[in-house]
Write a structure and sequence with these properties.
The protein is 76% helix and 0% strand. By secondary structure, the protein is mainly α.
């Protein structure tokens, strides 16, 4: 996998995690945490969206961003419950 693709996904994950942390009003917004939440949220959101036939997070599109953001928000909500 080319380095630029990996870097692009890390930046995408950081942005998604940052927006999700603002939506969920989390107190700590570290870069590494945002990347992890964003990337895991993209996986979770993609899995949920594929279950319902709503799409996936295979490309950097508005639909992919929305699915990843939904997954990240769900992930933050789950971690708050635990």
């Amino acid at each position: 996998m080319p380095v630029l693709v990996i870097l692009a996904w890390v930046i995408f994950g950081a942005f998604v995690g940052w927006v999700a942390s603002i939506i969920m009003k989390t107190r700590r917004r570290g870069l590494i945490r945002n990347v992890i939440i964003g990337l895991l949220g993209a996986v979770l959101g993609g899995w949920i969206a594929s279950l319902f036939g709503l799409g996936s997070v295979e490309a950097f599109t508005w639909q992919g961003f929305g699915i990843a953001l939904l997954g990240a928000v769900i992930l933050i909500a789950i971690t708050r419950r635990l």
